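Q: My collaborator sent me two sequences in one message, no labels, and asked for predicted structures for both. Can we handle them in order? The first one she listed is below.
A: Yes, handling them in the order given. First sequence, followed by its structure tokens:
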Amino acid sequence: MKDVIKGFMRFRRAAYPQRAELFGKLANSQAPGALFITCSDSRVVPELLVQSEPGELFVIRNAGNIVPGYGPEPGGVSATVEYAVAVLGVSDVVICGHSDCGAMSAIANCTCLDHLPAVANWLRHADAAKAINAARRHSSPEARVSALVRDNVVAQLANLRTHPSVALAVEQGKLDLHGWVYDIESGGMLALDGDSGRFVQLDKFPHTRAMRSQPSALALAG
């Protein structure tokens, strides 16, 4: 905690004064352009990865960058997605996995989680990715985990699309979806190309989308 408190003191002394005008504008409103959903892993810092300033990203972090499919039960992820899309009107949603993910390693290696019942229950939202990954051959345990990280991003995008607010915004041409995988060691980022179903280097293909919104004829007529 000493380092945490020292960090706040540095923020208050140096970082805040440099952005005092910005914080003044943000004091009573926000208008982030994107919702960024990623893992709680301490090595993954969304604002650092995309070099964003306060007010630019709406962020959800949890074990395994998971988005449960929409349902009647209350959930913080569902509520945050709904608020970001339906109220704040973000134009993009990113689901970002990462290398060496502990949650995906536990799933891929069938780690016993009897002593962590809450974790075990949460990771069941990645069962679709688990089933797909298990049906493939992998060259090594490490390759299995890496593949599962990508499979999970695809599965969570599918879950995301079950949320009414997301489905409506995509239908109306107001929302694009992105699936990313961050490599901690190299700093590289893979992005899911929705047309080919493959992950490509984001810096080489910066316009890649997992799903690009296209207004339907009904939406255009309305």
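Q: And the one she listed second?
A: Here it is, processed independently of the first:
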Amino acid sequence: MAIDKDHAARTALRLLDADGLEKLTVRRLARELGVQAPALYWHFANKRALLDHMTDAMLAPTAARLGRPRSGRPWWEWLGDTLEALRRALLAHRDGAAVASGADLRRAVALGLHAERITEVLYESGFALADASRAAGAVLHFTVGRVVEEQSRADAGTEQAMISDPAFPFPLLARSLRERHAAAATPDDDFDYALAIVLAGLRTLHTNAAETPTRQP
């Protein structure tokens, strides 16, 4: 039986959504596809290769919509929207960010396209090329890592019980979390706040670089 990698990756995403990453194996996927595991290993040398193709399938629609900043629109607004869209794509699948974490961009091409476009936009906005590349890696790692935490976090009831426990050893943290619960703060609010910090830092680096005089040889 011929195996189509795209079909296999989409099937693996369906299994992921049903049971999570811990229960997803190449052997289980082979059973779902009706083939022997050795046949599937010809296409996916190991689980990392499978996860990379799953990452590509997850992010391909978002990558296809990657545009460029419209004329007159600041680069940081474009970058914020791009990272918000990436987060939504990862959240659309159970353990989606864990799947993408550590991806090989030779196979997870859609994630590589994000890195390439962000680097391009930052470079054209005045960052040195090496800095643009480092910044692209930083914001992508921030987004993926943040969603890993979000998808691994205890449910709201568990967190509420934890911070209401008189024996909880961090009183100021408990108070701040209670205040956020009272204000009905959402994971979206938390991400937006953290993203604003990241973008403010990049804007400061951009401004400082522009104001630093170029050394003459």
